[in-house]
Design a protein that fits this description.
Number of helices: 4
Shape: elongated
Radius of gyration: 19 Å
Mean pLDDT: 80
Number of strands: 5
CATH architecture of the largest domain: 2-Layer Sandwich
Strand order of the largest sheet: 3-5-4
Distance between the termini: 56 Å
CATH topology of the largest domain: Alpha-Beta Plaits
Strand content: 15-25%
Amino acid sequence: MNKLEFTIHCPVCYMTKINRSLLVNYQGVDHYFCSTQCLERFKSHPHLFVGDPQHGKSPKQKDQEVLKKRRIRFCEAISDPLKAELEASLQMLMGVEAIVFEGEDLYVTYDLIQVSLEDIEKAIEKAAVGFRKGVLDQVKRGLIHYSEECELDNLAHLTKDGGCH
């Protein structure tokens, strides 16, 4: 008797190295994940990863990417040890495509389908915990400043290089 073989992959990032303890049953189908990040992403937006007969394939099943580039401004230049810690932490996130430091700015390019700005902010806060308390406060203030700058830019309908979106 021939045994049907198939490869199980994470529906969020398509990795084949899955953790069988990370399981969700959605619409009667078991879905396994490679990481808690992918599991949580799926739980919050399953429609991004699973299609249905009525609506067709999901954005992920169509290989769609939604690339975002965000600037996160810190109150002062980031030290080299903190840069290394932040970069290592952000590279662990599925969907982060690029990380660039310029003075007090951190530019992160990521696929919104796989990771959100909120996930990125949490990773930054976690990485900054090992440094002096003031650094974590600078990170939080920088994230707030960034959000306000984008909101103001959007309200002003900037279309040249100064716009955030």
